[in-house]
Amino acid sequence: MKNLLFAAVVCLVALPHSKAATPDEQQCDGNALQVANCENAVLNALERHLNAMYSLVMKMFDAGATEPDTSFFYDKKKDVVAAERAWLRFRDAQCGAEAVMIAPGSGTATVTGACLLAMTRERIKYLENLVASLKYDSKLCEKDADACRPK
C-alpha cells in the first residue's frame, strides 16, 4: 500500500504544473448534454467578463476626457452603447442562423453554444482593445491606473 501511495505522489509531482483553464481557453467535450452544460458555464463566465469590460468602458467615458477640447467623448460613448446593443442582437441572430444552417435538429444547441462562445470571446478582445486605447484619454485612469482594470 505504501508503494502505491508513493507511486501516486510521484506521478502527481512529475506532472507538469498547469493552471486551470480559463473560460477563454476551456474546451467542452463529452456527450451533447455535457457539452451543453459546459458551454453554458463557460458562456456565463465569459459574459461576466464581457460585462465587466463594458462597464469599465462606460466608467472611462463617464469620467470624461483628460483634454478639455475632447468634446466628442460623449458622442463616442453613445456610439459604443448603440454598437454593443446591436452586437448583442447580431450575435444571437447569427448563432441561431448558423445552428439551423449547419446542424439542424439535435446538433443545434452545440453549434449555437460554440458560436456564442466564439463571438463573445471576440467581443471581449474588442472591448479590451478599447480599454487600452481609452486609458490615455479618460480621466478615470489619470490618477489611478488600477481604476482602469476590469473588476
What does this structure look like?
It is a single chain. The chain is an all-alpha fold and 151 residues long. It has a single domain, classed as Substrate Binding Domain Of Dnak, Chain:A, Domain 2, CATH 1.20.1270. The chain is 71% helix and 0% strand. It is built from 5 helices and no strands. It has helices spanning 2-14, 32-63, 73-102, 108-134, 139-143. Helix 2 runs parallel beside helix 4. It is elongated.
Largest sheet report:
none
Strand content: under 5%
Q: Total strand count, please?
A: 0
Helix content: over 70%
Total domain units: 1
> What is the 3D form?
elongated
What is the gyration radius calculated from CA atoms? Answer: 21 Å
CATH class: Mainly Alpha
How do the helices and strands follow one another from N- to C-terminus? HHHHH
- Put simply, the count of helices is 5
The N- to C-terminal Cα distance equals 47 Å
Low-confidence stretches: 1-21
Can you name the CATH architecture? Answer: Up-down Bundle
Mean pLDDT: 79
Précis, in short:
This protein is 71% helix and 0% strand.
Task: Please tag this protein with its features.
151 residues; mainly alpha; Substrate Binding Domain Of Dnak, Chain:A, Domain 2
Fold topology:
Blueprint: H1 2-14, H2 32-63, H3 73-102, H4 108-134, H5 139-143
